[in-house]
Amino acid sequence: MRIFKTLFLLLLVTTLNLQSQDYKASLFGIESNGTTLNTTSIQQAIDYIHENGGGRLMFYVGRYLTGTIHLKSNVTIHLEEGAILVGSDNPFDYERIGSWMALIFAHDQENIGITGKGVIDGQGYLVANNILSMVHKGIIKDPSGLLYDRPREGIRPQNIYFKGCRNVHIQGIMLKDPASWNQQYDQCTNLVIEDLLVDSKSYWNNDGVDIVDCDSVIVRNCYIDAADDGICLKSHSADFVCQNVYVYNNTVRTSANGIKFGTVSRGGFRNVKIINNTVYDTYRSAITFAAVDGGFVENITVDSLRSINTGNVIFLRIGERQKELKGRMNNINISNLYAEVPATKADAGYNYEGPVEDNPRNISPSSIVGMPDVSITNVKLKNIEIVYPGGGDPYYAKVGLNELDKVPELPDRYPEFSMFKELPAWGFYIRHAENIEFENVTLRCKEEDYRTAIVLDDVHNATFKSLKVEEPVKMKDPVYSHRSTGIFIR
User: Fold this and answer.
1) C-alpha torsion angle, residues 471, 458, 292, 142 (rounded to 10)
2) What value, to the nearest 5°, has the Cα angle with vertex 254 and ends 314 and 387?
3) With bands split at pLDDT 50, 70 and 90, how would you rate the model's confidence at 2?
């Protein structure tokens, strides 16, 4: 009911905007020649529409060059097909507010939107390299000291950063080439993102969409091609929760994670539905849920996910990146999932591929890994089929079934599927978990693998119903349990 209420409110807001007045950009002296810097003219237009009852600022065919602008209440930027809002390549044409720079800012506004069939082009590759040059010259200061010789995310402009806004509608446009994250929505309420084409792979940290501590969100019918995480939910504040989120019918290609919660995870994530999505050519995990900064993950549903040529499929993790701040994870339901894991690097050919520091290594299994004193609880997997390449090589760094204590805990490590290096399972590795249920799960291994299909370590009350494990060389026991109780295979 909450999702449908959100849809109704957003559609109502959109209808009201459509009924309000349209203003041509040219009316305010905004030039479409691609060389005139229009920052002041566009801002004056937004201010005028805001002060005169609201409406749409209409951009027609042309290239509109601009620096930072601020969207205000009851104003929608509408980009007709052929209209391109172009970010300046001069870093000094952008503002920094708090921790972030952006091409389009909005703070504490309501009934706002960006719609149409046009394009927002951040020219991020040029901007980021201009920033890098200025850092080397000492003109711009990077607080990180140029980690890996690239400026930190906060001093590179995002295409969109909205914070504390209500009734936001982003529809139809193409969002391309940000210098940092592409679009970030922080502590917003009633947010719909739909029908977008996101091309976000020209520089480092180019996330597709970041939903931070928002309430009542729909992300649907989007195609996202990202150098970093595709659809990423975060919780930056311990005082907020990212909740009531509906992720539906999206296609994600990424050299990081397809759909991810945390990092950061200071508050929590609750009541999220991820339905009918496709993830492909992905270096990391199709889905990653992490509670590593003291926050929680609970009441999450994943249904009808297709994952093709993806380096890892499922990664659930509780950690402790800050001392004595342990997360928790409860009530995760994943169903109707089909996945294929390749033997080769899944994101080969990206401008910015995933890291290779952990290679060579064996293909990582899906993992559900809590902490010794905080278990992941109540996880159900139903109607799952995962095809693995097999071919594990014990000479990389074999961890045998009689030496599971060699797998490190790594409570303060950044959560990634490859963080533990070698794992003793090829299908699923489950550690520090309670009330785990597998129903109609099929695991296929193409080539012989020295590892066991499923390994349980400190797992209590786990049921495997209609489990199918297919291997070239059949293992006697596809499920191995250590320090575990209440394990039932039916």
Assistant:
1) -70
2) 40
3) low
Which CATH number describes the domain made up of 1-228? 2.160.20.10
- Any residues with CB less than 8 A from the CB of 67 and at least 6 apart, and which? 37, 39, 87, 88, 90, 93, 94, 95, 103
Spatial contact of 431 and 329, defined as CB atoms under 8 Å apart: no
**Residue 17: phi, psi to the nearest 5?**
-65, -40
Q: Is residue 468 packed enough to be buried (19+ CB in 10 Å), middle (13-18) or exposed (0-12)?
A: exposed
Locate 400 and state its tokens. Answer: 């045998």
Residue in 318, 325, 315, 316 with CA at minimum distance from that of residue 370? 318
Q: Is the pLDDT score of 150 beyond 70? A: yes
Of the candidates 212, 117, 100, 219, the residue with the CA atom closest to the CA atom of residue 165: 212
Q: What is the mean pLDDT of residues 416-428?
A: 95
Residue pLDDT, tens place only, 283-294: 999 999 999 999
- Give the β-pairing of 259-265 and 268-291: parallel
**What is the Cα–Cα distance from 281 to 353, expressed in whole angstroms?**
11
CA distance 138 to 128: 15
- Whether the CB-CB separation of 392 and 363 falls below 8 Å is answered with yes
φ, ψ for residue 449, nearest 5 deg:
-130, 135
Residue identified by tokens 């080769």 is: 344
Which residues is 260 bridged to in the sheet? Answer: 232, 288
pLDDT at 9 exceeding the cut of 80: no
- Those residues whose C-beta lies under 8 Å from the C-beta of residue 20, and which sit 6 or more positions away, are 53, 54, 55, 56, 74
Helix (H, G, I), strand (E, B) or coil at 217: strand
Residue 403 in tokens: 């030496």
Name beta bridge partners: 107: 163
Q: Residue 358 has what pLDDT?
A: 63
Say if residue 139 is exposed, middle or buried (CB neighbours under 10 Å; 0-12, 13-18, 19+): exposed
Total count of residues recorded for the chain: 490
Task: Please compute the mean of the pLDDT values over residues 320-336 and round it to a whole number.
Answer: 93
pTM for this entry: 0.95
| pLDDT tens, position by position, 226-235 | 999 999 999 9
Dump pLDDT digits (tens) for 106-134: 999 999 999 999 999 999 999 999 999 99
Q: Is the peptide bond before 469 cis (omega within 30 degrees of 0)?
A: no
pLDDT of 14 > 50? The answer is no
Amino acid at the residue 214: C
Beta strand pairing call for 328-340 and 83-87: unpaired
H or E segment to which residue 473 belongs: none
Q: Comparing 355 with 177, which gets the higher pLDDT?
A: 177
From the list 169, 267, 166, 167, the residue with the least C-alpha distance to 212 is 267
pLDDT band at 349 (very low <50, low <70, confident <90, very high): confident
Contacts of residue 167, Cβ cutoff 8 Å, sequence gap at least 6: 9, 10, 13, 110, 111, 112, 189, 190
